[in-house]
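Pasting as-is:
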Amino acid sequence: MIKIENIKVYNLENAIIGMRNPMNSWDKSDSILCEGKYFKDCTSNCDSCPRFNEEFNDDIFCIGKNDLELMRKLIHAGSPHDKFMRQILCSMQITAPLYWWKEMDTYKVATVANSTSTMHKIHSKPIEVEDFSYDLPINSNNEDSSKIQQIKERLNDDLEWLRNRYLETKDTMPEDNPYWRSLIQLLPESYNQTRMWTANYSTLREIYKWRENHKLVEWREFCNLFVNDPAFLYGRELIAYEL
């Protein structure tokens, strides 16, 4: 399971201005700020321009044909020519299992994450099945499915027992409480954690390149958003652009 919320993209306009600095070609820039009410009058032919999504009522910076062509040429040229991609910033709230975050943490360049705290807050609410990313194996028979469900429920009950014992003993056993330590140590990687995660389009492009067809469905769903979610402004044209 993966859930992406509060997607925000920043600095498109300045990234394009900076992109044209090396050749002093600002006069060739044809990107404009589209006001929400004028989306239907926009002359851009970009298929994923957010003007086509009626949910967007705010002003949107619309990339023109000349600028998009130059962007793609620079992406073709590779680093360091595509520096403008590092100046397009993106922030989002991600809820995903720890086993997915463990792989996401390999992307450390130009990323920032502010997460909910397992250490401080794992005991603050009852532990429920919904707190985990659980999936039944494909092609499992009814007997196996029932067995797996029993394991999940038993694990959940055991973790909840540890949580309650910690709450009962935290004042009398303040140092190295064994129930708390056991709860942290036995927490499975399927436990979901929420982080506000910030990166740039260059990092997102690397993620898309290597994770688009990953065996984890969470990666495939994450990468699919770059193509299909209009909140990732020009994700199809820049992040998922194929050379």
